[in-house]
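User: Continuing from earlier, I have the next pair ready.

Assistant: Great, send them over.

User: Here they are, in order.

Assistant: Folding the first of the pair now:
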Amino acid sequence: MHTTAAVTSFLFAAPVLIVLVASLKSSTFLDFSWAPQDWTLRNYREVLGDPLFPRYVANSFLVGGVVTGLTVLVDLLAAYAFAKLRFVGRDKIFALLLATMMLPFSATLVPVYLIVAKLGMVDTYPGMVVPALAAPFGVFLLRQFIRGIPDSLLESARIDGASELRIFASVILPLCRQPMAVLAIFTFVGSWNSFLWPLLIAQSPEMRTLTVGIATTNTQFTQNIGGTTAVAVLSLLPMAVLFLAFQRYFIRGVLAGALKA
């Protein structure tokens, strides 16, 4: 059992280790060795000295933070409506929402881009943020949790004269902190690693996110493997810090969802 876990962990960690070692070398990627003789931090100094690198990082944090906050709020409101409110066609609308999860992003890429272009949001922050706010998975995740909240709590609040918005803010929101943390982590990581959509929308270098900046480090005529791997390692650090900081909330949220499912 332990051997299987160790082998599986190594298989997942090996690509990251290869990138880390390659970022500390001055030779080419094809001359890879686990213990190179030419250790250097030159690649990191060049990357950190690039005037556009801080802008890439700032764009990734800005887009990821806004997308995460708005997605969690919108998904929580929708999940509350689907779980606790009664309206015509609720179950059919929810089934249709879940069906959209089966559509690949490439199938909706062109229509969404045309809509964004018609609205004049190409090469803007709203153009990168707004299309990412619809997250059926988040609605499903939060709805499953909210369904486990006793209806007696909501009925007591209604008897006391609380509105639906007050019930949402005072009852639902405090009880959903753990699944919200899980959704926030998933959403931020997905936004941070998003590549195709920011590549289409961010047409100027100043609007690029970090993932797009990594891809554009290499061109057809220039191959900077050391710089690319150094940027890749630096892009992993915020995700590692995020997971370590919210690890207990993530595990509790996943376990809570599993127990209520």
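And the other member of the pair:
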Amino acid sequence: MSRVVCEICSKMLGLLGFLLLVAGANCMYASNSAVIDLRQNNFDNLVLNNDHIWVVEFYAPWCGHCQQLTPEYDKAATALKGIVKVGAVNADEHKSLGSKYGIRGFPTIKIFGLDSKPEDYNGPRTAAGIVDAALNTISQKARRALGGKKAESDSKSKDSKDVIELTDENFDKIVLNSEDMWLVEFYAPWCGHCKNLAPEWAAAATELKGKVKLGALDATVNTLKASKYEIKGYPTIKYFTPGKKDADSVQEYDGGRTSGDIVNWALEKLAENIPAPEVIQITSDQSLKNACEDKPICVVSVLPHILDCQSNCRNGYLKTLNSLGEKYKKKMWGYVWQIHIY
């Protein structure tokens, strides 16, 4: 009797082991993983019916790319634990969920919780890329809560008006064939650091308007220029010197990422490359206009008549004006003078 019982137990244990093996084969992530197993019966309650940001992978157990992603996705989930929810759906098993969200290939990652529709994640399949995208979504949600969705959108559109959009087709004409100093950001639309830089870049472009030009090039679309300038990470900022440009005109930007950092760095570079302004005597309305029209500030000096101040005296005043021009040349002020008329 005991032998029969043992045989039955042995068969039951074998069947249980087989069932566990099948269950494990259908799930890409271990039971102790930070990745939450999402299914047809819990998806709406966990993902849709709360205020959390969710990163959700739709996968198939047999998919090789999904298997390659697993360790990176696991690391991202661990890093985001307590900050952003990270889940995974076996879309091969839960086909209705895959169909609902238009899943046509594996793995597909979507971010839920920002808008009524989930946002596709098209970034690199690395833990760092996934974390960056998740944190950027949180940042967007917080900014919307502060100022409202419409206000944020309007502000972004307004703030970016002074950033010049560059492409493979217009780059040489606009940047290389100009005498202006340029800072060019090479970015990727999915890059979290690029999205964080965008408002700072826009603010710097506005502050530097008329002095330094700031451009932005989508390196994922305009691959010719991205390849030419050896862009390997995003965002990458390149500096193009003022004046006639050649192969040596491009340099790396090594400053900070706030608008203040960008402005100060640009003005320092500008000061290194531009001569001190000429101190011009006002002889007509046109000479005054030419000297001052495009300057943020024009310093106008009235000097004593030659009868009251001999040449050495006047030259002393002009020397002082030239010294001021040299000292503050990065401000790009204009300097003019005229004789005191009785």
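Worth noting for the second one:
The longest strand covers residues 54-59. The chain has three domains: 24-147, 157-273, 279-339.
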